[in-house]
Amino acid sequence: MTVPGTISLPQLRAFCLDAFERAGMTRPDADIGAQVLSTTDAWGVFTHGSKAMRGYLRRLQAGGLQARGRPRIVAEGPAWAVVDGDSALGMITSAFAMTAAIDKATQAGVGYIGVRNSSHFGAAGYYACLAARRGLIGLAMANDIPSVAAPGSRSAVTGSNPLAYAVPARRHQPLMLDMSVATVAGGKVYAARERGEPIPGTWLIGEDGLPTDDAASYPEHSVLTPAAAHKGFGLALLIESLAGCLSGAATTWQIRSWLGDDPALPTGHGAAFLALDCAAIGDDLPGRIDGLIDEIHAAPTAAGVPRLVVPGEIEWERFSVAQASGIALPSDVLASLRQSAEIARLDLDDYLAAGVNQASGGLRFGI
Amino acid sequence: MTVPGTISLPQLRAFCLDAFERAGMTRPDADIGAQVLSTTDAWGVFTHGSKAMRGYLRRLQAGGLQARGRPRIVAEGPAWAVVDGDSALGMITSAFAMTAAIDKATQAGVGYIGVRNSSHFGAAGYYACLAARRGLIGLAMANDIPSVAAPGSRSAVTGSNPLAYAVPARRHQPLMLDMSVATVAGGKVYAARERGEPIPGTWLIGEDGLPTDDAASYPEHSVLTPAAAHKGFGLALLIESLAGCLSGAATTWQIRSWLGDDPALPTGHGAAFLALDCAAIGDDLPGRIDGLIDEIHAAPTAAGVPRLVVPGEIEWERFSVAQASGIALPSDVLASLRQSAEIARLDLDDYLAAGVNQASGGLRFGI
Questions:
Q1: Which of the residues A246, A290, A301 would you substitute to probe the B interface, choosing the one with the greatest number of B C-beta atoms within 10 Å?
Q2: What is the value of ipTM here, to two decimals?
């Protein structure tokens, strides 16, 4: 028996693809968006997966996202380019930009792509992994509307500005870290609120500048705390510099919220992608990463800790489980997908009913 | 009256230069080392300034550091190079490598330099600022012997792996962050121990895997905690990948301690330097950074907080004070300099006695 609310990975991808296509996107573009969102869910990162699609569909309908937007390179040099996202879905522009970074790195050893006129791009780790799957080190980052305090501030000063990297290994899955510069990403606060779960007192500070554990206060009456205080704040400004200021994108308060602001208007987000060609620069980097991972796995654990994991290891394990057994959708994700189905005039049950026993053949990582 | 133990910046630089020259380094090389260490002290980062010189002098005497070592490029492409440090003083190799990164970036837009056979390089922020002073964004990072736990580990798994960046502004000093991936760098634990100051219970975990506030237990019987748990751990592995695995340097347990291990043997540290040419890629990046800094300065502060500062702002303010009034050396730094003087057969009082009222002309940032 399949647990109700469990969906196979190919069916989740098919649902997202069909919904994006109904919103006016070309089938190849819709499939890129679907691949990013379903992979993110397969990693168990539900805050940044298909749950977000209803917001994208609303913006595609209203025109803030351009269904037929075409990202393009507007300036370039031997090891860099600037991409204008044309207000296309963030996944389309980001996949295009990381592919360009990989091309530059393959030529020059390193590639930097700055992106302007993009939008919310989902899980940064996806794009970093596009590079790792091709044997390169990848980094992905983006700016966002301010939601995070600086040390000593009473209001939001920077975005939660995601930073992700992926480093290819040989025997192991790529190392992959996808972090926000906040103690936790805002999506986790939203999820806790929707699920009615309590949050620790270290995630938010209220309008008085003091800590609060009231998830319902976010984002109207509280802001996120920066991870490790000045370190998270400092990383936020590095990301704003590379993804916003250098790329010519909107920054901080110039950016519009992809969730809260008028869906008819573009959000103007910036992003940055870096790739380094390990095959050109390094001497068997994947083999050395294997050794590093093996060494960490062999290190002694604290009492009660069964094993040490490297960044991305849990996500790749969940990915394997999702390939074999489908994804048990959390209630907030399922509710959001039903709203997406309504917007797209699709019947989610058609996709859920397909079960998880069908061959998931062909769904590998990548686009 | 000058406070005893206060030294002018030119005299501190002259002392370090003379000491390095006595250890066999060429005068130009000795001056690079002196400039890095005195600037670091002028920033108030005493854990990574001239206090460390006694350790370098011992290794220069014993041969683990090569006084006449010459860093050289051993492989390169349009936007990258690998530098072999020839076991020269870490400051020499790192300044050489960042200069190479700037050269590559000026040609290709971006430059990555991986470094092997280096040693402890002091304050990573110095090299990042070399790029910012030339109008480029600079990043600097290095690996080190394991001293930091992974989430759930009982022993050290990664180095405290410094990460620094600097971004040029126009009206303001460059943004500059220099952080370790540990909650605090080991140098701060050593300094607290030498000064007899207590430390918080969040900096270290003991051999049982539980937190300890016993600074004296470090590093023999405790390890540093990673900043923001899995985030600091994840960044440590990114830095190890770029500075160690990709550059062909020693990694984790292959590295020797520059303080604790046989001074006759090289340490084998790795490092990585990145530069991005803002003038080629961006449209008035320095002006946009000015705007970002102004915006943060204008944000409301929490009760009791007089002002918000951006990364590096306090360090640059201290630098100005040091230029005008000299540096009041903390007792542990002064004691270490006296040991350096003994090793180099110099009289520190000659330099201290020069007073701070002499013109400090000519001591600007840079090499």
A1: A246
A2: 0.96
